Amino acid sequence: MYLSKHDLLQMDDEWLKKLPAERLLDVSKRLLHDVKVLQDRQNQTPNNSSRPPGSQAPWERSASSGEATQETEAESAEDEETDEVQAEAPEASTPAAKPARDTKNKKSDKKQGKQPGSQGYGRTQKLMVTDTCEHHPEVCAACGCAIAVDSDALVYTAWDEIDIAPQVEGEIGLRLSVTRHLLHEGHCVSCGHDSRAQTWRASADELWDKVELGQWRLVGPRLAGMIVLLSLRMRLSRALIREFLIELFGLQLSTGVIDQTIREAGRASAPLEESLVADIQQATLLYLDETPWHESNTLLWLWVLVSTYTALYLIGPRSREMVENVLENLFLGTLMSDGYVVYRHWKDRLRCWPHLLRKLRGLAESSDARVAGVGQEMEIIMKILMASIYEARTTPPLVPLTQHHRADIERLRKLCESHRGDTHDKLRQVAREFLYDWDVILRPVAEPHLPLSNNAAEQALRHWVISRRISYGTRSSAVSRAYALLASIIETCRRRGASSWQYLGTVIAAARLGLPLPALPAIPMGV
Predict the structure, then answer these.
(1) Which residue in 155, 156, 159, 157 sits closest to 123, CA to CA?
(2) Domain edges within the chain
(3) Mean pLDDT by 10 residues, the chain (527 residues)
(4) How many Å is the maximal CA-CA distance in the chain?
(5) Phi then psi for 14, rounded to 5 degrees?
(6) Cα separations in angstroms, 214 against 129, 202, 260, 393, 523
(7) Contacts of residue 278, Cβ cutoff 8 Å, sequence gap at least 6
(8) What is the model's pTM?
């Protein structure tokens, strides 16, 4: 136990003078211990601990290179709880955490957004129609007989759809088109009933509360795909997307329409999650990581499972079920991860060495000379093994690395065994972590071709971590689900060399008609 503020407030010069020599020595030892712990904590950086790079001031940051030292914005202080059965709660200083509200102010009973009964606003911009599309009833709503198309049939309603016009070969740039959809009435000769053409509309879904999916939409599918790209990939807010469309195209869309479009795109893409999961389950090497994510006032986690050509994002609790629901018992490949205790459920896995080296660097920089000595020795051994692994990838060794470095490995094991019950918290935790995952950590020594870092997963999270810092996460479960689905499709398209916004346009167009969705872009040939 450290001395609390309450304890320190009672300690002053007069109090120290009254202590006998033995008690004064005990207090001095106690204070010295606390000073060393605080000094080590103050000296923590992303290079010697699990602190995220974003916690440094801009002038303190320095570029790093190499697989062992490469770091990304996706790392967080909560990412590596390795030697505890239960993960600790994230610190209040998490970059994604919202500023604390003033508890003195009374909370309003009003819900966010537009209030019921408030004045609405219709479209004021006049659009020039560039094309028309007529919809006639195909069968009689009364008797079910076929209805012949009558060009003189009554138009009972219509709507305009703004979309990006198909590109002409050799033409550069984008053009907007406005299509007026005309809904006609049709007269049934058999029964005399007048039927009306109806647009397709998806039924209500509990998972997509207040998210409509249907044919009658102002924003066309290709334009919707571009709005999704601007929101997620370019990290633009709804207001900035509105400004972007006005500046470049002279198109006025409300932020509400833009938000509805993004949610609708998420619902339209939902069936593709099964295809993404199937591709992930078939991967031979899978990188996995997670980072904090806020959904309104609830702390959740953004997970990523990434292979060479597929990325799957999930938003949910930090539990083993999140990974099990995806991998089930169908994943037969190798799992690369950090030291989070949940991942120990999978036997065929690898550990990220840069995470371990940063922890050893933290021990080596400790104010406790004994701890620093142990940390330096363990760090030197790990770097020797890492250098041999890299060399073995280009020049096959004459003898197996496990045999060549037997003495180093035995020395590392002896250090961990002798300090697994150490009184120093960090040293004890690191020693136990190595022992818990001994075979997993040292597996690349026997198989040098295996990767040493989890950088692929961290780099896949980097973009979305920056987005989280800008937006502070999402506000509802529907938006969180849409965000994860759309992020998965965009990243998968990027990895497969396909245009994400154009592919999303085809997906939204099919979903609005209730048709089967197009398959994910194919993996590039020759791989």
Answers:
(1) 159
(2) 126-198, 224-318+458-527, 353-446
(3) 78 85 85 87 84 74 48 44 41 47 62 75 84 92 85 90 89 91 90 88 90 95 97 95 95 94 96 96 95 93 96 95 90 92 89 95 93 95 96 91 95 96 94 95 95 95 94 92 96 96 96 96 80
(4) 112
(5) -65, -40
(6) 21, 6, 12, 54, 30
(7) none
(8) 0.81
